[in-house]
């Protein structure tokens, strides 16, 4: 069992149960999945760029990424239906906890000019979204072997019902929010 999962079940969940006034431990918000997404954008037609993004996502997550395809054609963006427009990975279970632990302890401190996470990163349903401008903040990617930088969107889906419950969960897990 990962350190973060054991920390959640022994310390975070009971503390959240008391602070949020929940009667049942199963009503306490918990993480359900982590989704890493890269929109191909300018690299839509470049198959080598798609390969590079897929390899970097695989290194970061430890799991094989999946191509996301356009649902409908949009002429203004030169996109046809079924054309690959992004690459994503969904993490659940032990890999999810390992990734979040690495995200908080290693990746956020490595981001250039990092001043903390804005509380607006948690939506009304208690889910967390954060966009990295450069994927080199992750420890698996060494900056000397990178040919082309790309961004990366991290979404953590929770069972929280409100924004306040989501923020309480992420603060208890050690996410570095900005002081208000």
UniProtKB/TrEMBL annotation:
Entry keywords, A to Z: Ribonucleoprotein, Ribosomal protein, RNA-binding, rRNA-binding, tRNA-binding
InterPro entries registered for this protein in UniProt: Ribosomal_uL5 (IPR002132), Ribosomal_uL5_bac-type (IPR020930), Ribosomal_uL5_C (IPR031309), Ribosomal_uL5_CS (IPR020929), Ribosomal_uL5_dom_sf (IPR022803), Ribosomal_uL5_N (IPR031310)
Domain Large ribosomal subunit protein uL5 C-terminal, chain residue ranges per copy: 84-177
GO cellular component, as recorded: ribonucleoprotein complex; ribosome
Keyword Signal attributed: no
GO molecular function: rRNA binding; structural constituent of ribosome; tRNA binding
Chain ranges of the Large ribosomal subunit protein uL5 N-terminal domain: 24-80
Pfam families reported in the protein's UniProt record: Ribosomal_L5, Ribosomal_L5_C
Keyword Zinc: no
GO biological process: translation
Subunit and interaction comment: Part of the 50S ribosomal subunit; part of the 5S rRNA/L5/L18/L25 subcomplex. Contacts the 5S rRNA and the P site tRNA. Forms a bridge to the 30S subunit in the 70S ribosome.
NCBIfam families linked to this entry: PRK00010.1
Family affiliation: Belongs to the universal ribosomal protein uL5 family.
Protein role: This is 1 of the proteins that bind and probably mediate the attachment of the 5S RNA into the large ribosomal subunit, where it forms part of the central protuberance. In the 70S ribosome it contacts protein S13 of the 30S subunit (bridge B1b), connecting the 2 subunits; this bridge is implicated in subunit movement. Contacts the P site tRNA; the 5S rRNA and some of its associated proteins might help stabilize positioning of ribosome-bound tRNAs.
Protein name stated in the entry: Large ribosomal subunit protein uL5
Gene: rplE
């Amino acid at each position: 069992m990962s350190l973060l999962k054991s920390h959640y079940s022994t310390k975070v969940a009971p503390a959240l149960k008391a602070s949020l006034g929940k009667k049942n431990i199963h009503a306490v918000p918990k993480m359900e999945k982590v989704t890493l997404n890269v929109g191909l954008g300018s690299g839509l037609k470049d198959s080598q760029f798609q390969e590079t993004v897929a390899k970097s996502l695989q290194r970061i997550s430890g799991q094989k990424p999946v191509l996301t395809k356009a649902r409908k054609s949009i002429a203004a963006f030169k996109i046809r239906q079924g054309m690959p427009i992004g690459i994503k990975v969904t993490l659940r279970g032990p890999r999810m906890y390992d990734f979040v632990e690495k995200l908080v302890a290693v990746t956020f401190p490595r981001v250039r000019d990092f001043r903390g996470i804005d509380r607006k990163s948690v939506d009304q349903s208690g889910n967390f979204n954060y966009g990295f401008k450069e994927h080199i903040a992750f420890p698996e990617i060494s900056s000397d072997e990178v040919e082309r930088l790309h961004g990366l969107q991290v979404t953590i889906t929770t069972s929280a019902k409100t924004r306040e419950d989501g923020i309480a969960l992420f603060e208890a897990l050690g996410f570095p929010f900005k002081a208000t």
